Amino acid sequence: MRESAPSRLVRSGAAMALLALALAGGCGGAEEPQAPRRTVLVATVGSAEAAAPSFAGEIRARHETQLGFQVAGRLVERQVDVGDRVARGDLLARLEPDDLQARERAARARLAAAEAELGRARADQERFRVLAEDQLVSRSALDTQEAAATAAQGQVDAARAELELARNQSAHTRLVAPADGVIAARHAEAGQVLGAGQPVFTLAADGGREVVFAVAEGQVDAIAPGDPVQVEPWSGEGERWDAQVREVAPAADPVSRTFEVRATIDAEPGAFELGQSARVFLPSTPDGALSVPLAALLPGPDGGHGVFVVASDGTLELRPVQIAGYGGTTVEVTSGLQSGEHVVAAGGHLLREGEPVRPIDAEGRAAATDAGGAS
């Protein structure tokens, strides 16, 4: 018996429905793929002492003097260069002496003329005195000659002072070292015309050494003359030297907007080289305070401040914290964290609490947690 068309359609629809149910049943047991964990940069909560603020510094001499000629002239000879060691009295440079020597000769000639005029005036004074005793000249004429002799004596005194000044200026054409030390800088070259007092060299005198470093406006209030600091040479192997702040600049540098600080180093001669780079460490904070990166700080869940902490299962927990103060790149935390915990060091505003993450440290290594560091 031949099957009708409507019957075939009904049977075909039922078969398709059964096939769909079978396919749905087969896929019902499969798990949905999980989204990959977001990689986050974390930092380990540590003591604030280990994160004490540090600054880049340069070793300088305790006494640095800019040397120049007391007279103007053309520099004709330079005997030393940067880095040369000099002793007190060594010749450093020389000016052309011709003009000053000519000035000295002119002063000597003026002195000779003034002395000759003084001799004539005194002779006239003596003659008028004798004549006045014999009443051959008036008293007023004698007074006039005495005044002329006094004026001539003044001219001689002025000429002698001028000659002495010219001699001194001639002697100042030679620039000598005022103390033992090292030439730290050169500011002029041979052939250059210099003004009186214009720097030619900078002399770093032997003796004490200082470290010079710059402090930002937000940190300068925490440093005062007399405060102790520690200095560690970049080339040193962790060795630190005690130092004491000697002066803090009262005004900021107009370009860098930082304050220059100088600290005297308590070290034996030769321990530091001029121009050597060093790190300066400020005193550590009180015991018990912890430190986290400044960028880790976020608004707390109930106001105040908070940080994202990586839990043992690899998820994030927004933990409220209490802070004590701010450093250059860190913030001191007094409660809410424990030493050794991992906090999100950057990008916390893009995360949410409870989100699973993959923590890595600043060197790109997976940060271990109690769960072994989810990946």
Textual characterization of the structure:
With 375 residues, the protein is of the alpha+beta class. It folds into four domains: 38-51 and 287-360, conserved putative lor/sdh protein from methanococcus maripaludis s2 fold, CATH 2.40.420; 54-61 and 206-281, Beta Barrel (Elongation Factor Tu (Ef-tu), domain 3); 65-95 and 177-203, OB fold (Dihydrolipoamide Acetyltransferase, E2P) (Beta Barrel), CATH 2.40.50.100; 98-171, Helix Hairpins, CATH 1.10.287.470. It is 25% helix and 33% strand. It is built from three helices and 23 strands. The chain has helices spanning 5-27, 98-133, 139-171, and strands at residues 38-44, 46-47, 54-61, 64-68, 73-78, 85-86, 91-95, 174-176, 181-186, 193-194, 199-205, 209-216, 228-233, 241-248, 258-265, 277-281, 290-293, 298-299, 305-310, 316-326, 330-335, 342-344, 357-360. The strands form five sheets. Strands 2-17-21-20-19-18 form a six-stranded antiparallel beta sheet, with no helix packed on it. Strands 3-12-15-14-13-16 form a six-stranded antiparallel barrel. It is elongated, with a radius of gyration of 44 Å. The two termini are 67 Å apart.
Structural key phrases:
375 residues; alpha+beta; conserved putative lor/sdh protein from methanococcus maripaludis s2 fold; Elongation Factor Tu (Ef-tu), domain 3; OB fold (Dihydrolipoamide Acetyltransferase, E2P); 4 domains; 6-stranded antiparallel β-barrel; 23 strands
